[in-house]
């Protein structure tokens, strides 16, 4: 039980306090609401050693997540690998590189399972039996899968141009999927209206303050797997701009509990050039985010033109000595291939964005080649096959004879590599 | 170090012993070779409590896997969830049901990562730098991904009719993929010739004895997650027929170590009716497997007409009081949907086969409704989208207005469910 640990919600702009209920934003200034905890009570109640003996899921950090009782949805989410990426490090010319690989998150193969596990557990606590979301794809699948497992009815609204794998990855679970002719920002506005009118629990609308906290678990796991330390640099993809802030919040919470040394991590945000409202604000030192009206990128999961947390994300990057950078579709695909060929990790287009930006930042000298760097991979390549299918050579077809095989590879055993002793 | 634990290879037919090298089969009678261990030494060296404190990957059972040194490939493989499937249990009318979910195995989302991790770790030990496989799809992706991460050159041979997701899921990693005009059995025969001629390490040809042992880790994990016990029934998909035997071997090894009670598990095997050489042998009480010359099923990953371990699989099912059953494409798709809608798990077609067979066996009374049952899901639904895309309704498209949404769902808030207190 962690009910004693969540104090309530607080507006990030004016500081007004609210009870822990389903709320979209501050009624005074429309500012986003942040969950507040009683960290002293958490510190008295929880030891690092206790946590380390718990099952390796996101819920081992449950005192730092905004659920009052035991979690009821998404019990297997999280605990994804932090991969020491030595072959990729060599290719990029850096010393210490890690991939946080949420492409294999349970159940729906993206980091969204983390936020949905919290949002739907909270929805059950608040008494909702119908839930929903506005999604660029990964959230659709995660809400549909987790709602199905929990026996909740789910409405999933998506732009009408999504990849087949992401659409089927929501409909297969029996969710009521509705495609909207328009972009994500149109979808999102409609969801706000529906949530208000029908009184449903939309994970990224009226459950958003709780939902967003789920992302912290990615930061907790990274720090734990680094041996309880924060990395020197971390590169995070940005759509709405929430994840980068929550990972930083996670590091700061661990620092506050005295579990890790003071955090000096430089936070780097990655976007596609075809939808770069946040990185553009960083690079032009703009005071506010200028929405992108017509996003055009193969990284559809990042194509949010009017990012809810863009302002806070750009502020964070500047305050921590980080930076925001964006890359074009060509660079995205090259990076997807590089990641697959060096580390055997097939990320979706968003992962290509993050790695391509990492590469650019290393070349620019903004990421120190001697420091430790974590690259956050948030979704699986199987979901965005359209983006690469025409860019990867199709296999040659031969008949099942040794002669045709030898002719294809242009070698007989004499020319091929010699057999080792064991063969 | 576990080198002291592996004694060598033994022919399953004549018992002739061989050293632990890359060998296809017994030179006397072409019988399959089985890895032999020194269980007494393992029992003296390893305690259950020691193992429980290790990272949750397949390698926590490394003393029972045929690697001489530390594993070097696939270090993150295994540790997949055993899901207590209460909603599915209710739908099927059984008391205690579990899904062993290798659809989220690392890195390539199928149980094949287990066998490949062992085979490639062994390939490195034996000095191979070029590896390969004959595959119906999942093995292709697993060899390609794990070989890329390990820096090994990989040749992947597949039938020329595979699903896009499985082809792209091998080429993306930079493996040399060759499509063969023919079925799996043609591919497999060619691979035997190539392995012999070029001296390469083909995981399911000359590395097969080691490779197959990797499947035991699925059984170890199931028993551990059940609180160190074997289930009353387990349903396992069969292609070559190896997995079912290795899971049983795993239970028996744990029994031999005194870690679980004597094993009374009834072993059930699942195939598609369009390629059912093993279940057909069970149902007709045949003395030998009659190959299926022209497999026709949407479950392409199970479409092996001449299964290498079919004889042993059918023998095992009969000896344990289990059974073999097969199902048609319609039943496969229905079961895929049922699993997704009740448990939020999107399995590939093979998973549909296994669940549909489970359902049939329950209806036939062959699986006891009051016993415990584990259903093995071995691959991810994102890889076989073609099989269901035309069977799942596409989402309706509306403009982004509340009026169109209400018209679509045929409800205004008054008719829809009432909002809960928290809304």
UniProtKB/TrEMBL annotation, chains A, B:
Enzyme Commission code(s) on record: 4.2.3.1
Gene Ontology biological-process annotations: isoleucine biosynthetic process; L-serine catabolic process; L-threonine catabolic process; threonine biosynthetic process
Domain called Tryptophan synthase beta chain-like PALP: residue spans: 75-379
Required cofactor names: pyridoxal 5'-phosphate
Superkingdom as given in the UniProt entry: Bacteria
Residues modified as N6-(pyridoxal phosphate)lysine: 112
Any one GO molecular-function label of the UniProt entry: L-serine ammonia-lyase activity
Signal sequence, start to end: none
PANTHER family cross-referenced by the UniProt entry: L-THREONINE DEHYDRATASE CATABOLIC TDCB, THREONINE DEHYDRATASE, MITOCHONDRIAL-RELATED
UniProt cross-references to NCBIfam families, sorted A to Z: thrC
Protein name, per record: Threonine synthase
Organism in which the protein naturally occurs: Tautonia sociabilis
